[in-house]
Amino acid sequence: MQRYFIYLAYNGAGYHGWQIQPNAMSVQQKLEETLSMVLRTEISVTGAGRTDTGVHASLMVAHFDLQQPLDDPAILADRLNRVLPKDISIDRIVPVTPDAHARFSALSRTYKYYVTTRKDPFYHDFLCRVRGEYDMERMNEAADILFEYIDFTSFSRLHTDVKTNNCRIMHARWERINDTDLVFTIQADRFLRNMVRAIVGTLLQVGRGKLTLDGFRRVIEQKDRCSAGDSAVGNALFLTDIEYPEALFQNDSIQ
To answer: What DSSP designation does 201 have?
Structure first.
């Protein structure tokens, strides 16, 4: 049995998130169906995480197993790209150790969230449009507070099946792209469901002057989702990177 990591990207607009849903199309379902058809055997894939409905990934990783090793994983990647719809693309497929796990072996994940104050007729599907001025410096001061905590219950979707709401945030920073656009980048060892969008929505309240830095701190400490701001829209959120230990990769394959 040979395990492979498959690196892919997708536009999430047409899918109900990554994970298979009972009555809606997901990225995982489309990938499994295509792999099974191309390889002529039933294939199941396990993703590195679960992006919500409408959320995109410029880099997602999943793993799958085959009884016989592939002669050339690049050929399979090309065949999949010929069959998959235009909103899903395969970057590469690499062999990994039998115990490598797309989700549990990940060291970190990185998301980016894009905000604009302009009306854009071309990229509006990938931006969160806001009105008015935002204090980016104050939002970054609030983002720095995130490093002081590990329990992010206040930014988690209610009634999930996770055993802990603890996460270790490694990076959280707003940057200005141009006069009208901002991007928020956040990296952590794991994320809770809806966590990034809830953090962004609350930080935007800080940027508008509707929430103080002390108020932001209280939101975290209350461990109550109702105390945080509304979740920012999903279409402006991208999963952009996942890091793994180098020891998982075989045959000098590159992450």
So the answer is: H
Q: What does the alpha-carbon distance between residue 127 and residue 214 come to, in Å, rounded to a whole number?
A: 29
Count of CB atoms within 10 A of residue 83's CB? 12
The pLDDT of residue 161 is above 80: no
User: pLDDT per residue over 74-98, tens digit each?
Assistant: 999 999 999 999 999 999 999 999 9
Enter the pTM of the model: 0.93
Long-range contacts of 15-22 (CB under 8 A, 24+ apart): 15/53, 15/54, 15/87, 16/53, 17/50, 17/51, 17/52, 17/53, 17/54, 17/55, 18/47, 18/49, 18/50, 18/51, 18/57, 18/60, 19/47, 19/50
Domains 2-97 and 108-239 share a fold: yes
Domain ranges of the chain: 2-97, 108-239
Residue 166 is classified by DSSP as: B
Q: What's phi and psi for 166, nearest 5 deg? A: -85, 135
Confirm whether 52 is a catalytic residue: yes
Instruction: Summarize pLDDT for 235-252 with one digit per residue, the tens.
Output: 999 999 999 999 999 765
Report pLDDT for 252. 53
Residue 111 and residue 16: Cα distance in Å, rounded?
18
Q: Which residue has the tokens 């790209």?
A: 81
Buried b (16+ CB within 10 A) or exposed e, 160-170: eeeeebebebe
Strands 128-129 and 56-66: unpaired
Q: For 108-239, give the CATH class.
A: alpha beta
CB count in 10 Å sphere of residue 232: 23
Which entry of 52, 65, 179, 252 is annotated as an active-site residue? 52
Fold of the CATH domain 2-97: Alpha-Beta Plaits (3.30.70)
Q: Which distant-in-sequence residues (6+ apart) come within 8 Å of 161 by Cβ? A: none
